[in-house]
Amino acid sequence: MIRRKEQMTAIxxxxxxxxxxxxxxxxxxxxQELCGKANLCAIMTVEPGCSIGEHPHGPDAEIYxxxxxxxxxxxxxxxxxLNPGDAMFTAQGKTHAVxxxxxxxxxxxxxxxx
Amino acid sequence: MIRRKEQMTAIxxxxxxxxxxxxxxxxxxxxQELCGKANLCAIMTVEPGCSIGEHPHGPDAEIYxxxxxxxxxxxxxxxxxLNPGDAMFTAQGKTHAVxxxxxxxxxxxxxxxx
Lengths: 114, 114
Description:
The first copy, chain A, contains no helices and eleven strands.
């Protein structure tokens, strides 16, 4: 199945995982369209000052792929920075978090694999 | 874990799934790093004239997310065009294929979920 960019609807997720501000998510595919393979497949827009709070994964796992902008990130507790083209994988039993401390929006693709 | 854009190594895959030319894949994560959750997580570069031949999925499923350029695509046999920002999901039991009939390279993220 195909989902066009212009068909994706925005869902605002305030204080996501205890984070600050609002994360705007554009579902590439709805959870029920993913046939049990994944729980989320979305573009996440993180405005300046906004964050996704630190949270664990398991039994699922998550891939982040940076599309635009820069994010501070915590990869299982270790602080780092994500730039466009970088990937972060949070396996079962690991944690992650991101925060936009820049003055430009950041955008990443997030896939939560069931 | 983090994989930087500049750490990703290119793997050339000629005649991928019976397609034409060479597809260059940059693994965001190696299969053994994906903890059994996915079999592939890569940026696929499709040069003009190149293609990935039609093939079925199952028991795995695949997400394509278009990053750059334009591809002709076959979504379970139905011909369409993929532009940047579009997504294609090939569930278990479905088929897909892509071909670059444009004069510019095309780039997509591919995730094969186990």
